[in-house]
Write a structure and sequence with these properties.
single chain; about 1200 residues; mainly alpha; two-stranded antiparallel sheet; two-stranded antiparallel ribbon; 4 strands; about 65% helix; globular
Length: about 1200
Amino acid sequence: MSELYHAATECLMSPPTSSSSSSSGVGGGGGGRDEENYACVLKDGISAHLRATCDCSPTAIDVDDDDDDDDDGVRRRRTVAIPPAALLRAHLPKLDAAMRLVLYRERMQTCSLQLAKVTGRQLHYQWAAIVGLWYGQSLADLIATLEIAHSLLLPSPSSTGDGGGGDGAPPSSSSSSSSSSEAAAAEEEEEEEEGRLLRESFRDVMAAYSYPTETDDIPSLLDKLRQKIALLPRLAESLSSRVVVVAPSSSSSSSGPNNNTAQHASENDWDVYLEALLAQGKKLRALEVLGGIRCAPATMMTIGGGADDYGDYDGRGGAKDEDDRRAAPPPPRINDEADVSECAGSMLPYARRRKTERLARLSHELGMREEAGGYYRELLRSFPDQWTYWKALIECSCVAGGGGVTKESESSSSSSSSCPSGEMVDEDGWQRCLSFSEEVIREAATVRCGVRGGHELRGPYLVSLELVAVKLRRAGIHDDDAAAAATESDGRDGLVTSLCNEICKYGNKFSPLASCCFADLRPYVRIFVRTAANNNASSRRLIEARGQSDVPDKILQMLTWAKEMWATNSQSNDGDEINHNSMPEQVEDSVDALLRDRRKMLRRFIFAVQVVFDISNEFEDKSFTMQLLRTFAPSTSHMVIEWKTSLSFLPSVAAKDGGQKEVLPGDEIILLVSQYLLFQGASSDLRSSLDGSSTPSFLKAAGLLEEAIDHSPYNPHLKIAAISVYSRLGGADRALAIYQDLGVKQIQLDSCSYLILPVLIKGGLYTSAIKLAASILRLHGSTSKDVKGYAFDSFENGLMFKANEMITFQREKMRSSLQLLHSKAVLMDAAPLMIPSEIGNDTVIGGARQRGAKCGAAVALAGEKGFCGNEGDLARAEQLVIDAEMYFNAPSIIHTAAQSATIDDLVSSDNRDMTVNCFEILHNTSHLTKREIGIRSLRTGHVHGLMVRAIMAVGSASAPKKGKIPKPTEERSYRCQSLRYALLRARSFCQEAALDEVDGALWGACCQLCEAIIVVIHGNGRAHESSIETLAEKEVATVAFVDSTTELIQSARIALSSCYSKVKSSSYEYSSMMGVRVCQLLPDYVVPLYVFLETAARLFALFGWGKRKRLTKIPSGALAKSALSLQLLLSDMMQVMSQYRSFGGNDVLSLAEGVSGPELRIEAIHRVINEIMSSREATKDRVDSFLLQMKDSLDTFNNEQ
């Protein structure tokens, strides 16, 4: 569409259109209609170009990479030495995306300028201005991308030879030396050939966008682009000033777009003008303009008096005088919908709050700390509980010589450092912040503005902790005792004591009022523990070695305080050291007052236990952590009784249809109990008390969580915790049922599906994984369409910055989503294992999947999707190549893998919401890291890229005639060359990914079969080697690769049998881990290896080396040995699944009786065990169905002629 509208506008911009435009003043003439049509075409063209920008992949390296601080493009992410050709191959798609973005925005600017010229409307001038700024940003990205490409294209000095005889290695033999030099020459020649092809591709990309194609012309091109970047902000300022800047003369004779436009300029109009100034570095001018903007009247409640009307604020910290007030015209009124629809652009004037925020940021960036502090104080008088304002005030007041405040720093959480290590603290500013917070607290108490909805302000009180933490952070983290001792003179002990007192003070005040009290204090508790232990890991280890008696007094003081709090506020009738005088002496007669008091006591109890857990978890030695828990935390039975007591006196959840879904306040106790049990079970050092098994602890946690979910079915944290426990126990079916009850939908699929997607693969629920992954792809496809329309609607209504936010969100967050990439990989891997009968029957009722028969009882491998090694694979491979061209189709992952030079070169945005696990304190659920997802996704892309190329290469092969090798054709040579290049990239990836022994062996087996296919079809495929001219030579070369495949499969068998042999675990845990391993190996490597083997067998049969000739033809016999090795591996996997199925064995009753107790009924444990056994049985049936099918199919290799 962009190309179509560009051609249309180019045609309409011809001279005839200009002449018709000059005659448009004649009423009713055709010229007027032409100009109106021309304006419509220009507007539609802008819409088409803007929509096209949403499809440009981001050229930034990684928008969410927190580990790298450099801004050096691709180079900052390199962790291994990568050949320049590989880097250039990965860089060309980014260069193409950057050029496309520049092209679309250039067209947008051209259309916007023409539209403003034709219509003369203020909105269209603003369009031209903001698009010019966007165009400049895209040009800057293009320059950075071109510079990297230019550096990769420059000739580099050739490295010295590293062949077999160098580096002081003892010479072995002339044959080994020659073979080593031949291998080096082969690799060098392949790199040179690939480099030549990539340079041609670079020229094609440059020529496609009308840029010079020669490398020597790139520096001059970069200079021209820089000159254009310098002009664009000036043009934007000139265009935007037509809308927002009042003409110097106020004479009534003045006319044109400058006449009194500033009086009604909207917030977006001013923002465009300010952005144009900031793009030129005119911050002082921007500050001056921003201070003079008149804001909308908006009366609000303030603390301490002062100007409470936006219209009475001059933007410089004071009230406007009478002359300004009389000169200020009233803002446009909105009476009905017609006023909005008839207005061109936005009608919303600048809001005082946003204006003051921008004034504060600009002042801080310019080093005007006092002025910035004044603005933040003004904001805090109106919004005293806005924590980001307090953080910004502390930063600009306390950090001597501190940098500017950015949007990112303002949105940072309380755990981020307000005073980085090494920065000096301004004592005067520090004291002013403390005094101001105390003033706000006093004034809030005086005017009763501090209570909103029954909750007292927390921000001013939290400032006291942040101020102490600022000074503690200043010293940084010390790794040696000498450095720690050197800081004692700085008053560390006094600061630690102050922080301890402030934490206790805050906890005493807000723990009964706010459930989030611990979340507020959590970062400060960690700072306290680390600084109290000299901020030294070795010191903490020394404390652990000496025992509890050597814990610093300040830490013991806080632990004792927390223990006294939970003991005092315990409301159960049984427990360890319970204060039976639990109820207050004076209790009001009303039931509501009694419930309020009980709820406060329950909150104090929960808060105190959370503090004990958090302090104990700061020590690395888990045995020492358990000692602290046993001493200072209540027992699990005590906490369970406390939870049950809360159920008896607090109202139960009884949500009506359409009503609010409530949760019970005692749910936090069960989460704490589950954390305690999971910590106990996951720590190998603690398993001696559990007979070496973590299963009883996990079963107990699952039973308690199930019971809590029954009482509080709308608490998402209970369900997330239960999913984690069932995934450890092998109950994938139940985990899926709980996930479905969460009701995850829409954008949450991208942020929360990570909770269940890996669990489905580990549990063999391949069809459910396909459904979930497909829903994620559909979400991204529909979002891409919707965002385009919404973005232009915002743009058309004058909300240009909202439009840019939507485009940026789509390009940098959604299009490059890590979960989208993972979903593509899951779909491709699991496609051959799909069970069609489960597609429409994936609902779970009452916690058990509805099954009419055994899952997968008569399901064929790759019955509907994927490859299975038969003749139908060729048609599917050809269709898959077509589907791969659509970005939101799963096969496009093949291109993603081919275009990535390294794992770290993968552009991705990690949109997973890890905050849903905020309840985890002692035990953190292990989720896939960003790098692990990247490795798994790229592995899938490489494996399927090899399969597609191998199948299509075999499809192009022809049988020999009269014992002679068929002559190579252009298509056959291209197919084999493509497969060889893909094989080189796959092996490079394998070296970087550092796969384990099993994965590496199976990966190598797949690659060796690809080598065999290339040799059979095209000979060696390398120009420097002697060509293979006879079938006998092909046999010898092919057998070598097939024999290597057999050895690798046997190595994988041995490695699989020794998996987890060094892990201290019980038989339950070992069978569970091995079963999960098999469920992952099946789609990742076993099915692809089976497809490669069957594909090679079809090719061998074409050359007269069929399966029935294994005794007479050497290649057939070698391939039959590989098939036998794979068959034995499949038998081993089936044996593992039979053990995985028998959870608990004959000791199920004794296991249940050992776990149950007074706090947990045996029926609850039986319920959990039944869920796990049912799920494992279904998993075994599914996996065995496919393993047995492949095993039976491989029997055909044993048939004799």
